[in-house]
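Dear Dr. K.,

Following up on our conversation at the group meeting, I've run the structure prediction for Ubiquitin carboxyl-terminal hydrolase from Diaporthe helianthi. I'm pasting the input sequence below exactly as I used it, so you can double-check it against your construct before we proceed with anything downstream. Let me know if the numbering doesn't match what you have in your notebook.
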Amino acid sequence: MAETTPAGDVGRVAFIPLEANPQLMSDLLHKLGLSRELGVHDVYSLHDADMLAFVPRPALALLLVFPVSAAYESYRLAEDATLPEYAGKGADEPVVWFRQTIRNACGLMGLLHATANGPAREFVRE
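The predicted C-alpha cells came back this morning:
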C-alpha cells in the first residue's frame, strides 16, 4: 500500500510506525533499559469482565490504538491551536511529558509516556 504524505509534511522527519504488537513493544522496552518484569499485553475489551480477566495485574498504563484520519488531524490541529505551549520542566513536575515532533512516532511516544510516569518508572533499570 502506498503511503500518502500530507502537503505540510513533505521533508519532515518521520519514523516507520511502531507495530501495535505486545511482544515487539515489550522487547523494545527491555532494550531501552526497563526491567523484564514489565510487559505489554493486548486488552480485548474494556467492558467484558471475562476478557479483562486475561490482563495481568497490576496494569500500569493503557495505550489506545486507533486509525488517524483527515478529520481527526483537522480536529487535533484546531484543538492544539487553542492551547498554550507546555513550559513545564524539571524534577518538580508531577508528570513527564514529551512533545512528539517526529511524524509516525506515536507508538514510541505512548510507550515513553507510559513508562516515564507513575509506578512504571520504578521499572527503569538502565
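Two things stood out to me. The chain has one domain: 19-123. The mean pLDDT is 89.

Best regards,
J.T.
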